[in-house]
Amino acid sequence: MTQTQRYASEVRFHIIDMIMNLGFGHIGGALSAVDALAVLYAPEEGLLKVDPKNPQWQDRDYFVLSKGHAGPALYSCLAVRGFFDKKLLHTINHLHTTLPSHVDRLKTPGIDMTAGSLGQGFGAAVGIALGIKIKNKSQKVYCMVGDGELNEGQCWEAAQVAAHNKLNNFVLFVDNNKKQLDGKSENINQAFSFEEKFKSFGWNAITVDGHDCEAIKSAITKGFKQSQPTALILDTIKGKGVKFLETIDDHHLRIDSDEKKLALNQAKDFFAEQIKG
Ligand SMILES: Cc1ncc(C[n+]2csc(CCOP(=O)(O)OP(=O)(O)O)c2C)c(N)n1
Ligand SMILES: [Mg+2]
Q1: In sequence order, which ranges of 59-193 are alpha helices (DSSP H)?
Q2: 29 close to ligand 1 (CB < 6 Angstrom)
Q3: Residues 83-130: pLDDT tens digits?
């Protein structure tokens, strides 16, 4: 098991624990995002150049979680990486917390952009990447959108601007868990092929197993060698790592203490399977 996978497992436990402690939250869309986030934030192996002791470091790489409702996934990554005390995770969504349910760059160390209104983070991330390119700097910019989020027209405006400006310092993760707020995406507004769409917009686009950290890492490294921006279509499972969550369509869940126990046990089983595999 690699250090990145170990880190992803720890992040999963914290997501379950913090949401279950609160009693409700966007758990499925947080768990589907974990492995790609681990590729960025894992200590030592993570690709994102950041300094937990100096979150505003001017030469850092940037990450924008455009699907801002998955805040718990990013908060867990940041806490485990040492941006702030893990004890704070239990304050999620409390009055005056530094961890609101949706990410806010003015409240939390390590959050580069406020998000929650779907579609907006992508455009902001493209702006950051363009600014870096204009200044001739070498930092990279990453952004994550949900598959449902790509129903928003403004995402495709951002995609066109990124391709027009040949933003090869930009990698977009599409967390393609194939579900959104009201159920399965194919029944709501089907995407056809994200890969083909991004290609037709002038992007380098590739589909990878969104729970295979090594595959994600290698696709990113290849992506930065291209002359266009890269879209990684992450084939993911909403609720990944907790069997009963993987089979339901609920986007936002209320959870009782029995379900909390079940979720933690199933996450432990998943961890044991990974160690064996
Ligand atoms: C502009 C906007 N419209 C509606 C919502 C309500 N909303 C929150 S999450 C969500 C579904 C998002 O689906 P997806 O992007 O697939 O996220 P994931 O499956 O990763 O949780 C919706 C419609 C919102 N946050 N912003
Ligand atoms: Mg989705």
Answers
A1: 71-81, 120-134, 153-164, 185-188
A2: yes
A3: 999 999 999 999 999 999 999 999 999 999 999 999 999 999 999 999
**Ligand 1 contacts CB of residue 177 (under 6 A):** yes
Contact partners, residue 148, CB within 8 Å, separation at least 6:
118, 179, 180, 181, 185, 188
Q: How far away, in angstroms, is 180 Cα from ligand 1 center?
A: 6
Using CA atoms, how far apart are residues 28 and 240, in angstroms rounded to an integer? 7
Distances (CA, A) of 71 to 18, 116, 139, 276: 11, 9, 23, 30
Q: Is-contact 169 132, C-beta < 8 A?
A: yes
Cα separation values, 235 from 89, 154, 177, 179, Å = 28, 23, 6, 12
In short, whether 175's Cβ falls inside 6 Å of ligand 1 is: yes
Per the CB < 8 A criterion, the answer to whether 31 and 239 are in contact is: yes
Please provide the distance, in angstroms rounded to a whole number, between the alpha carbons at the two ends of the chain: 8
C-beta of residue 64 within 8 angstroms of C-beta of residue 128: yes
Encode pLDDT of 239-262 as tens digits: 999 999 999 998 888 988 888 889
Q: Which residues have C-beta within 8 Å of that of residue 141, sequence separation ≥ 6? A: 61, 62, 63, 64, 125, 128, 129, 132, 167, 169, 170, 171
All structural domains of the chain: 3-276 (3.40.50.970)
Is the pTM for the entire model greater than 0.90?
Answer: yes
Is 188 buried (19+), middle (13-18) or exposed (0-12) by CB count in 10 A? middle
Q: How far is the CA of 14 from the centre of ligand 1 (A)?
A: 22
Spatial contact of 121 and 145, defined as CB atoms under 8 Å apart: yes
Secondary element (H or E) of residue 26: none
> How far does residue 145's CA lie from ligand 2's centre (Å)?
9
